[in-house]
């Protein structure tokens, strides 16, 4: 195995160095944790999602331990939008995680997975009356209120039900997270949260409204953040806000610090739990607050891959790299098409690594020009029938899938060690229309 890795070109060696849960065995090929992916691909076909339970739980423990090392009591609420499969929620619930939800459906899903209402936070800018009513009735830990209008609606609904609603105000600190513009949430131009300059006045209203229990504040500035600098800027502003609120006689007991911890898709530095914990201790511990975080991608992203198979090697001439068409598509993993996101791609079978390397275009079969996974990517000369793994696909992968082009949903597998079980069966083509109804008046026109 060592000699095979040393023979790889530098860019693939770098990819393996930034992905310590991946290795290449001379016989078994690409190994994910302890799981050889060749056997998974052969047995379950493609496209197929693979979630590694061991990697997921190890990452949760690492994050949790970072706060314990700093003697911080921090509630970890998994951001379900990253991947809300019940098998994933079950694993994290057993580790002690709560949930950060953004819809009524996610609330019911979290409860179904056994997560206590006392460990659930509800974020999101467009909560409906029905969703807020459900949250109040369920008596979840907190509702992260994103506007003055939502606060007043919540008070009205809570009075009607006859229960109190515990709230944190989500504050927009106008801090640039230096991330992709489509996943930044803490700038004044973003739709999220209450403007920083309005925070105190809205928090006063929260104390005056009936059936509202103000706990404190929530701040979330974006996603895929690797540096602690944006967090420091946001936390410092929140400290100033909390001190001002307390100076005006307003009780503040809770600060939800958000999430957005970045992972290494390519060669970038992964966010460090130890550095984030140290920062929170330095800046926030003196305020004696109940602290919470909302990680999603950092936990589940590197815990998942997408297996795909080469359908065709298409040569369009010397002016462009060959097109390698695979059976996974943008309907399966939309991130490259939506965000121009970079995902590592590695062959699964060991013998492929012995072939000549070429610049290849990796594309899906969907009838859209944006169905692209890589451009001019240096890889062994892939041929029809070869299996590949698309890396870091656990977050915002299967959960954002669609059936566009009448393409059935891919199978989902969870592995632990060398054990593998289906957690979602591959959808059949017939499943695509089983709930579709042709209206009765249609037949009258024939």
Automatic annotation (TrEMBL):
The active site is at residue 367. The modification N6-(pyridoxal phosphate)lysine is found at residue 81. This is Diaminopimelate decarboxylase. It comes from Commensalibacter intestini. The gene is lysA. HAMAP family: LysA. Substrate binds at residues 297, 335, 339, 368, 396. It is an enzyme of class 4 (lyase). InterPro entries: Ala_racemase/Decarboxylase_C, DAP_deCOOHase_LysA, De-COase2_C, De-COase2_CS, De-COase2_N, De-COase2_pyr-phos_BS, Orn/DAP/Arg_de-COase, PLP-binding_barrel. Specifically catalyzes the decarboxylation of meso-diaminopimelate (meso-DAP) to L-lysine. One of its GO terms (biological process) is lysine biosynthetic process via diaminopimelate. CDD domains: PLPDE_III_DapDC. Pfam families: Orn_Arg_deC_N (PF02784), Orn_DAP_Arg_deC (PF00278). Pathway: Amino-acid biosynthesis; L-lysine biosynthesis via DAP pathway; L-lysine from DL-2,6-diaminopimelate: step 1/1. Pyridoxal 5'-phosphate binds at residues 260, 294-297, 396. It catalyses: meso-2,6-diaminopimelate + H(+) = L-lysine + CO2. Residues 58-299 form the Orn/DAP/Arg decarboxylase 2 N-terminal domain. Its cofactor is pyridoxal 5'-phosphate. Keywords: Amino-acid biosynthesis, Decarboxylase, Lyase, Lysine biosynthesis, Pyridoxal phosphate. Homodimer. Its EC number is 4.1.1.20. Signal peptide: none annotated. GO terms for molecular function: diaminopimelate decarboxylase activity; pyridoxal phosphate binding. Belongs to the Orn/Lys/Arg decarboxylase class-II family. LysA subfamily. Residues 302-394 form the Orn/DAP/Arg decarboxylase 2 C-terminal domain.
């Amino acid at each position: 195995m060592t000699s095979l890795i040393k023979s790889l070109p530098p860019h693939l060696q770098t990819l393996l160095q930034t992905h310590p849960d991946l290795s290449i065995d001379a016989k078994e090929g690409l190994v994910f944790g302890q799981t050889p992916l060749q056997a998974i691909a052969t047995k379950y076909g493609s496209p197929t999602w693979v979630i590694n339970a061991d990697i997921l739980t190890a990452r949760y423990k690492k994050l949790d331990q970072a706060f314990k090392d700093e003697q911080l009591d921090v509630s970890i609420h998994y951001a379900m939008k990253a991947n809300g499969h019940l098998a994933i929620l079950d694993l994290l619930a057993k580790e002690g995680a709560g949930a950060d939800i953004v819809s009524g459906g996610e609330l019911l899903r979290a409860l179904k997975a056994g997560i206590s209402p006392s460990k659930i936070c509800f974020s999101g800018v467009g909560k409906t009356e029905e969703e807020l009513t459900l949250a109040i009735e369920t008596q979840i830990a907190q509702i992260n209120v994103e506007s003055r209008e939502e606060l007043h609606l919540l008070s009205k609904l809570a009075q009607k039900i006859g229960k109190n609603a515990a709230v944190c105000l989500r504050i927009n600190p106008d801090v640039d997270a230096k991330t992709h513009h489509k996943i930044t949430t803490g700038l004044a131009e973003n739709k999220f949260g209450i403007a920083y300059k309005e925070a105190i006045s809205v928090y006063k209203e929260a104390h005056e409204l009936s059936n509202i229990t103000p706990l404190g504040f929530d701040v979330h500035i974006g996603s895929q953040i690797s540096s602690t600098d944006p967090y420091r800027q946001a936390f410092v502003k929140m400290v100033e806000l909390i001190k001002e609120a307390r100076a005006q006689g307003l009780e503040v007991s809770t600060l939800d610090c958000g999430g957005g911890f970045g992972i290494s898709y390519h060669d970038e530095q992964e966010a460090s739990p130890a550095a984030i914990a140290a920062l929170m201790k330095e800046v926030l511990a003196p305020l004696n607050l109940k602290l919470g975080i909302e990680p999603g991608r950092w936990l589940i992203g590197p815990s998942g891959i997408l297996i795909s198979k080469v359908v065709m090697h298409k040569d369009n001439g010397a002016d462009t790299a060959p097109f390698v068409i695979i059976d996974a598509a943008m309907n399966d993993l939309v991130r490259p098409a939506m965000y121009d996101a970079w995902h590592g791609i590695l062959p699964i079978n060991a013998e492929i690594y012995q072939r000549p390397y070429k610049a290849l275009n990796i594309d899906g079969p969907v009838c859209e020009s944006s169905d692209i996974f890589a451009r001019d990517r240096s890889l062994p000369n892939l041929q029809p029938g070869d299996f590949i793994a698309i890396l870091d696909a656990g977050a915002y992968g299967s959960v954002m899938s669609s059936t566009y082009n009448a393409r059935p949903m891919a199978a989902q597998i969870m592995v632990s060690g060398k054990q593998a079980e289906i957690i979602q069966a591959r959808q059949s083509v017939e499943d695509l229309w089983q709930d579709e109804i042709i209206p009765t008046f249609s037949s009258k026109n024939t």
